[in-house]
Amino acid sequence: MSRRCFIGATVAAGLLSSRTAMRAEDGATATRPSDQQRYRIGVCDWMIPKRQQLGAFQRTAQIGADGVEVDMGSLGQRETFDNKLVDPAVRQQFLDEARKFNLEICSIAMSGFYAQSFAERPTVPRMLQDCIDTMKWMNVKVAFLPLGVRGDLVKYPELRPAIVERLKATGPKAEEAGVVIGVETALDAAGDVKLLDDIGSPAVRIYFNFANALQNGRDLCKELQILGKDRICQIHCTDQDGVWLQDNPRIDMPKVRQTLDDMGWRGWLVIERSRSAKNSRDVVWNFGANAKYLKSVFQAKPT
Predict the structure, then answer these.
(1) What dihedral angle (degrees, nearest 10) is formed by the CA atoms of 201, 234, 43, 244?
(2) Going by CATH, does the domain composed of 3-298 fall within 1.10.357.10?
């Protein structure tokens, strides 16, 4: 093993032993599991916070995760995302930086739709196409699309026809590109199943968020089972801020793993929140603790 890989592995292994152990050396390499690893752990670049910045890769290596969910950039009132990855030179920098730190880009995110209306913005078709193009350029297979507060289908069911129409139109384009659009909704699992049936494309699936089930008092494992492995493209393995995942009394993480094992699901578990109220601003401390815990559960051999 090279000195660089040894340093990265040592930092990841001792992540929670002390606060200073959370700080990897500059240039340290995250220990990424092999392609045969069933579950991989990622972080969102906008939450660490390095939104579409090269520095996201070094920070992810310091955290000890396996990959990064890279955002399309801010949206605001623009016709499309402020996406620096349209520049081939910038794309190559991102790919080179990921390779340097032995990381993967697990997904491309359209986080702008947390606050913007997917159902009502007139240039949404262009935004979706721009995301699909970016995925093809970066060789990334999954996109994250949150319907957000202005696309909440529980509060605003009247938006459903427009959302279904737009996703039905996008499905064939995503299929042709060989990518998947992962939609996060406020619906329960049964509602998500019906939504996907209405859309009718294998290239539009659910990007499942633990917090959606937990904050609405639903049984997390039953929700996963209702959806089934083929409807879930990726998972935000997270809850609201306050405590780390390992200290969260409403998540039985070993049971979650057993549920996913039994379903036959495999893929990326991406950390979005679950920061400790003791010091929510310390990015490496919080995300590092969550990454280490998730690896101890999901990357250990089952007993």
Answers:
(1) 140
(2) no
